[in-house]
Amino acid sequence: MGEALEHVGRLAREVEFGLPVGPGAIRIGVDGSVEVRRPPPASRHHFFLDGLLFRVSITPRPGATLFQIWAEVGYLPYTIEAPEKRRTLGAILRAADSLDHARFHVDECQKILVLGQRDVPGSLTLTDLMHETVEFLREARPYLRLLGRYL
């Protein structure tokens, strides 16, 4: 019984620092011991929202964690194909330039991407992951919905 309480106490101390996110970040041994890998391994996640596939990358660095999120939004039509639509989409993309957490980018193939990247101090916890994701979506989603009307 004393050994089990020791394991629970160790886990409680780890929780105070925030448990890291990622596969293999936390392991429980057959004896009930808890091992928390610090820094945790890098991990990749994804989710669907409003018909878009969002990808999330979590990469530990010394003293911080790099949080990245992105999605492919669609293609900007060429001027010859749809000049009015291209002008409207361009205006929406220019209006989004002032965002703090989300950036829209048009690549060389005219693909529109939405990207977010932040360095989070320490190990990224589940609470941090949710916070960063919600902040990104809070900014990007109104623009994504506007773009969706024209794509």
Overview of the molecule:
With 151 residues, the protein is an alpha+beta fold. It is 35% helix and 33% strand. It contains 3 helices and 7 strands. It has helices at 2-16, 83-95, 126-150, and strands at residues 26-28, 34-36, 43-49, 52-61, 64-75, 103-106, 111-121. It has a 5-stranded antiparallel beta sheet with strand order 3-4-5-7-6, covered by helices on one side. A two-stranded antiparallel ribbon has the order 1-2. It is elongated and about 75 Å long. The protein starts with a helix and ends with a helix. The mean pLDDT is 87.
Q: What attributes does this structure have?
A:
single chain, 151 residues, alpha+beta, 5-stranded antiparallel sheet, two-stranded antiparallel sheet, 3 helices, 33% strand
Mean pLDDT: 87
Principal-axis shape: elongated
Going across the major beta sheet, what is the strand order? 3-4-5-7-6
Structural class: alpha+beta
User: End-to-end distance, in Å?
Assistant: 62 Å
Largest sheet: 5 strands, antiparallel
What is the element string, with H for helices and E for strands? HEEEEEHEEH
Uncertain runs with pLDDT below 50, 5 residues or more?
none
- What percentage of residues falls in helices of 4 or more residues? 25-40%
Question: How much strand content do the residues show?
Answer: 25-35%
> Helix count, per DSSP?
3
List the helices and strands and how they pair.
Blueprint: H1 2-16, E1 26-28, E2 34-36, E3 43-49, E4 52-61, E5 64-75, H2 83-95, E6 103-106, E7 111-121, H3 126-150
Antiparallel strand pairs: 1-2, 3-4, 4-5, 5-7, 6-7
Helix pairs in contact: 2-3
